[in-house]
Write a structure and sequence with these properties.
Elements (H helix, E strand, L loop, with lengths): L1 H7 L6 H25 L5 E2 L4 E2 L1 H42 L1
Antiparallel strand pairs: 1-2
């Protein structure tokens, strides 16, 4: 158990950037699928309580991708920081 706590109590460098880039590339296939279905007229983009299709829908999807990824990244980063804090507390209590 001590080895696990020692290994994972160190905060990685550039954690937020790494999580953001990973989620961005993970979200892109879903965005491409949504764009395809939007152009085909199957799934609309809801913007200001209005269903949008076509080029305007594509533009809205592309503009919202960084915003959605940023929100997801922020909350996962907070969750990671909280877990790292708990590990550091356990390290201080039991191993120092």
């Amino acid at each position: 158990m001590r080895k696990i706590i020692e290994n994972y109590s160190v905060l990685p460098k550039d954690l937020f950037k790494r999580i953001f880039v990973t989620f961005l590339f993970g979200y892109l296939p879903l965005a491409i699928l949504h764009i395809t279905l939007n152009v085909a007229g199957i799934i609309p983009v809801n913007f200001n309580n209005k269903q949008v299709y076509g080029l305007e829908g594509i533009l809205i999807i592309i503009l919202f991708i960084p915003f959605v990824v940023l929100l997801i990244t922020f909350f996962v980063w907070l969750y990671f920081i909280f877990g790292n804090l708990i590990i550091r507390i356990l390290k201080r209590v039991f191993y120092e």
